[in-house]
Structures are given as structure tokens and as C-alpha cells.
Amino acid sequence: TLSQDINNDDNKNTKTILAGESMKVFSVDVQSSNENVDVETVTFTVASAAGSIKKAVSTATLYLGNDEVGTATNADISDTTITFKNLTKLIVPQESKELRLALNTANIGFEKVGQTVTGFDVTAVTLDDAEGVSSGKSVTKAEDLAVSTDKVVAIVPPTVLPVVVSTLTGGQSKLKIVVNTGNNTVAGSNSKPSVLLTDLVFSGLGNN
Questions:
Q1: Which of the two residues, 175 and 55, has the higher pLDDT score?
Q2: In this model, does residue 65 exceed pLDDT 80?
Q3: Under 8 Å between Cβ of 114 and 107
Q4: How far apart are CA 155 and CA 104, in angstroms?
Q5: In the predicted model, what is the mean pLDDT of the chain?
Q6: Of 108, 149, 152, 194, which is least packed with CB atoms within 10 Å of its CB?
Q7: pLDDT at 99
Q8: With contact defined as beta carbons under 8 Å apart, do 122 and 101 qualify?
Q9: d(CA 15, CA 190)
């Protein structure tokens, strides 16, 4: 069986991936009944608000718990699906474990293939081409689960991290804004991308 758990670490928060880096972005709980099940094909149905998933994601990695069990090449990725085929290590046990999706993203910029993506989301998960490990009996379309989450993912060329460099003293505090561009560039040259901040929102604990 497949079940969605919004409290799994991979599902808790909206995520931003710096293009060129990897991140686990989604998981579902999997569990077999009566015997362990050998699954050969897993398909994640995906969508985005803007940008091409196929261009942004160079490969994807499938994990069962913390163990890597498969890789999807870019040929297995489209703007609507990510498919893991011919799996040999995905054995669904009789106790619940997390089946996790990680995106390995492409760099964005001059002579690079990547693309900015916003609103990436997983909308369904399908397990197929499965059979019982002990019995050898086939399971036709082992599971097809529609999922729903508002914790979407963005893939971007620069990320911004605010860092407090000194605590509040005499009514003032120092804040440093760190821009991380990785190996990404602007579209027309090897120059690093810049960030224009239009809003800064400050919040504090206790009485203001």
C-alpha cells in the first residue's frame, strides 16, 4: 500500500533548490502485505507553475528510507512524469518505510541547459511491474495514489540567506544578506546573477 504523510520530513516545508544541487523533495509511505514485494517501476506524476521540469532536472534519485534504490536519467523525465524503470533494489517490506524522491538539478545560465522552475509539485505516485518475493506472483499496478500538497518546490539560479551577525543591542541588530549562485550565471555571459530585494520582513519573539 501507499499512503501520504504530510509530517514526513521531505513533505513538511516549501523548498528552494539552488540550480546545480540536489535535494530530497517528496516522500510517501510504502508497505506490503503478506510478503515483501519486488517493484520494477515507479512513476511520479509531476507539475509546475512555470518552467520546464525536464530542462531543470538532469536526473532524479529514488530512495527507500536512506537507501538509494534507483536513478531516472533525463530521458526518463518529462514535464509531467519522472519514471524509474527496471529497478532491481526496490523491495517493499511488510513494515512501513518512506519512498523518497530526490531531484538532481542542472545549472542555469550561459551555455547551460537548466531552467528556473516554480511551483514544482508531485500529484500522484504509481508502483507497477511488481511481484511477491516469496510467491513470485505478479501484482498488476501494485498501487496508484493521488497526492496533494501545498509544499511546492522552486529551482532557481541564486538563493538568498539572511544571517544575523550580531544580536539586538541598544535597539540595533546587524543583518547580513548572503547570495549563493553556485555555478550559475546570467543568460548572456559568465557573469554571476544578482538579486533585487524588494521587501524585507522582520519578526521577533516576545513583546515588541
A1: 55
A2: yes
A3: yes
A4: 10
A5: 89
A6: 194
A7: 96
A8: yes
A9: 26
